[in-house]
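Would you mind writing out the residues of a protein together with its fold in token form for me to study?
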Amino acid sequence: MSVLLTYGYSVYLVYFSFEQILSNFVPVDHYVFLAEGTKASSAASKVVTSANTKPSKAAKSSSQKNDGSQVAASEKKGGDRAPEKDRKKDAPHPRMQYDDKSRVEKAKKRAVVKQTEARNRVELFRHLPQYEHGTQLPDLETKFFELDPMHPAVYKVGLQYLSGDIRGGNARCIAMFQAFKEAIKDYSTPPEKTLIRDLTARISSYVSFLIECRPLSISMGNAIKFLKNRIAKLPLALSESEAKSTLMLDIDRFINEKIILSEKVIVKHAVTKIRDGDVLLTYGASSVVEMILLHAHELGKHFHVVVVDSRPKLEGQLLLRRLVRKGLSCTYTHVNAVSCIMQDVTRVFLGASSVLSNGTVYSRVGTACVAMVAHAFHVPVLVCCEAYKFHERVQLDSICFNELGNPDAISKVQGRKEINYLDGLVNQENLQLLNLIYDATPSDYVSMIITDYGMIPPTSVPVIVREYRRDHLWS
């Protein structure tokens, strides 16, 4: 008789006869567990043969001891658990869950920016950080001379993140890398320490400070991973000045090749999709989409642009102003009217904060709404995104990972006090304000993704992720 057993990720066969069960009961852990493969088949034949020949009790006990010792040795060596350990190493580091009170209290003790948690938080998003706005910036400004290990350039970028002066994935990533470049330039290895380990720890402390000012975007996480990888692979024979020069060159090369040149390549590809007489719709204010529209206008193509915007940031107004100044024909509307104007649109160009491995587009909240309406009207949706923003993560919703903005931004309208009906009600216990920053657009609503590697369908995103990892800048 044979029984199929599973242990962890492995499958095993247990061979025994009914005569053995009836004559002499043997514990389960003393049976012979055989793995798949050629060795398993040969060992199985030996066990069946020995069972048919009815060996003596002494032979049985010795064989059972040997089998038990083999199983114990295999458990000690952890041969079956090695693949699981490898998977744990490859798995991304777990993100901070802000509904875990013990972990939150520990994080508060290490925090540089003292922040007060929002009282009326939406229960579904309690795992995301949300603080009272308006108190962090003055408190951080008073602690400038108390932050000894913090480099002034990193401190300045953190203040700009906190105040909202720097927006956009590319702008935030470039500002962060330039601050790191200044920090590396002024860095000196402490005595009795190595540059690789100490500088990595220093960069990690800078990253923690920036996260306290504002959560990192996915593209910034990829850039930080690249920098730490370059630090870890520095040759030990290099002097400190040579190592610092190498790292600063790597940072400049990353900014030039992965951001600036990538945008130019995307523009070159995307312009081929614009024809005379097109009505192009865009949402929010994407720097890459703006470059595409301006370059197509410079080439002499005649088209009309529809800028769709939404509160509270109203970033589309800035894009609209720049396009009108360049002489482009534009229409401005809000996202609540997108279904009315979509019937006249021929193509939709959208930016992205990131593109995930399953083809999901992670972008400014409202992007999914625009893409779904375009799909309903059979309008092609073209997403423009640099390859360094691609990530191997798979995300099916906007709940597990997101960023919460200032709730006061949606409860008040600047310059319109007569319609601020929520004044005095924001702190009510039965009122919860939710201001999401990003949303996830399923790949079914995306026609094409334009990257610096070319124009691809959403199903080919894993290929880009793999090729990007093989890039010499990454590996």
The chain has three domains: 2-89, 101-263, 272-402+437-470.
